[in-house]
Amino acid sequence: MIEILEKIIKEAEKDISLIKNLNDLENFRIKYLGRKGELTTFLRKIKDLSIEERKVVGKRANEFKEYLEKVIEEKRIFLKEEEKVFFFDYTLPGRKFWLGHKHPITQVMEECVDIFVRMGFKEEQGPEIEDEWHNFTALNIPPLHPARDMFSTFYLPDGRLLRSHTSPVQIRVMEREKPPIRIIAPGRVFRPDDFDASHSPVFHQIEGLYVDTDVTFLDLKATLEEFCRIFFGKEVIIKFVPSYFPFTEPSAEVLICCLNCLGKGCERCRNKGFLEILGCGMVHPQVLKNVNIDPEVYSGFAFGLGVERLAMIKFQIDDIRLFYQNDIRFLSQF
Ligand code: DAH
Asked: Is 281's C-beta closer than 6 angstroms to any atom of ligand 1?
């Protein structure tokens, strides 16, 4: 009898190691401990044995029964936890996959930079915290010069400032490099303006600079016309009108026709027909002198584009604040 019991025990040990889930466990329980289970049947036969045999075999069989019951209970708890972790309800609806994209201002900025890079300009960056020299003085705007009023500025307690335009990048590059210089510098600029439909205290500009021998106003005009045609489309009408900037002479502003009425004047452009998109001009000889470039040998042109302006015209948006409210319904249109 003891051999039969040992065989059952051996088989049960092997079966235990094969249990993988609650179903296997239940089958195992029935096989050994069920009403007609192998161990149950065996235990029922013990009463027919001699007293001596009953003592030995009975003890071993009952101990094994207890052991099996304990193992089954432990395994049940473990497998239940495991099934919880791996439970996967394939009838649940799928989760929506949110795909982000670039902010319209970033898109426009990258598109512009890309156009100029293809023309041979190199991308540059400058610091957002600037000093008076780079933001003003070197750009031919000395202290107390009335032109400083054109660029109202945030000052830091230590005398430095938040750059009020991207033009200081011109100075940083010219201080560092010798002509030929052809750079494009996108970035954030800051002015203490209150928010309204066309103003924001933080906005974006793209600065361009080309310095070499024999650079003329014609180069400037051709470069900007080409840019506008690529960016806005071939049919666009561009005007250069005289203007004033301390760091360029002569200076101009570029106006672009309203894309809705092509310059005739309509409600969208408040009957203006043309909208200003950038300031430009031939680099002032004094600016070249300030960075030790000889204005007798070299000449250059520069321009500063307003990125929000470009985006508003291109996408026909009439309130700059929409760019900063981060309303997904607005942003996801681009
Ligand atoms: N910095 C000027 C502004 O913020 C824009 C500008 C005008 C930049 C003429 C230039 C330039 O480089 O030549 O209004």
From this structure: yes
Most informative mutation of 165, 170, 210, 307 for ligand 1 (most atoms within 8 A of CB): 165
User: 168 C-alpha vs ligand 1 centroid, how far in Å?
Assistant: 10
Q: Which helix (H) or strand (E) holds 203?
A: strand 202-212
pTM of the model: 0.72
Question: What tokens does 218 get?
Answer: 């014609």
Could you give the CA distance from residue 120 to residue 186 in angstroms, rounded to a whole number? 16
- Nearest-CA residue for atom 12 of ligand 1: 303
CA 281 to ligand 1 centroid distance, Å:
8
Q: Which two tokens stand for residue 301?
A: 């042109």
Superfamily classification of domain 104-331: Bira Bifunctional Protein; Domain 2 (3.30.930.10)
Distance 302 CA to ligand 1 centre (A): 8
Per residue of the chain (334 residues), what is the pLDDT tens digit? 888 999 999 999 999 999 999 999 999 999 999 999 999 999 999 888 888 888 889 899 999 999 999 999 999 999 888 877 766 777 888 888 878 889 999 999 999 999 999 999 999 999 999 999 999 999 999 888 877 777 789 999 999 999 999 999 999 999 999 999 999 999 999 999 999 999 999 999 999 999 999 999 999 999 999 999 999 999 899 999 999 999 999 999 999 999 888 889 898 888 889 999 999 999 999 999 999 999 999 999 999 999 999 999 999 898 999 999 999 999 989 8
Place of tokens 């066309």: 198
